[in-house]
Amino acid sequence: MCDVCYQEEIDWKFKNGGKSTQTCRLYRVYKGQSTPIKLCHLHAIELFCIGESRFLESHPRLAMSLHANTRSTSDVFAFS
């Protein structure tokens, strides 16, 4: 299941037809680390077209769920 569709409660199978999810990496979420996320075909294209920062700004529920997964409160999270 697509992480964005899951957070926004969208039926990703209906929206994407028979296409499967892709594992993409976000590089600017955690300092010095990359984060793998699963995206449907449409959200993977959106990430590629608008970039990581604007993608997280347009999907605040995903950004907040990534922020909740941080290990410490001292980590810098630029998208909250």
Low-confidence stretches: none
Biggest β-sheet description: 2 strands, antiparallel
Mean pLDDT: 83
The number of helical elements comes to: 5
- Range of helix content: 40-55%
User: Given the C-alpha coordinates, what overall shape results?
Assistant: globular
Order of helices and strands: HHEEHHH
- Strands, total number: 2
Distance between the termini: 24 Å
If strands are numbered along the chain, what order do they take across the biggest sheet? 1-2
Radius of gyration: 13 Å
> Structural class per helix/strand content?
alpha+beta
User: What's the number of structural domains?
Assistant: 1
Q: State which percent range the strand residues make up.
A: 5-15%
Distinctive features:
80 residues; alpha+beta; 5 helices
Short structural description:
By secondary structure, the protein is an alpha+beta fold. It has helices spanning about 5, 10-15, 40-50, 50-60, 60-70; strands spanning about 20-25, 35-40.
Question: Would you write up a description of this structure?
Answer:
By secondary structure, this protein is α+β, with helices and mostly antiparallel strands. The chain has one domain (3-68). It contains five helices and two strands. Strands 1-2 form a two-stranded antiparallel ribbon.
List the helices and strands and how they pair.
Blueprint: H1 3-7, H2 12-16, E1 22-26, E2 35-39, H3 41-50, H4 52-58, H5 60-68
Antiparallel strand pairs: 1-2
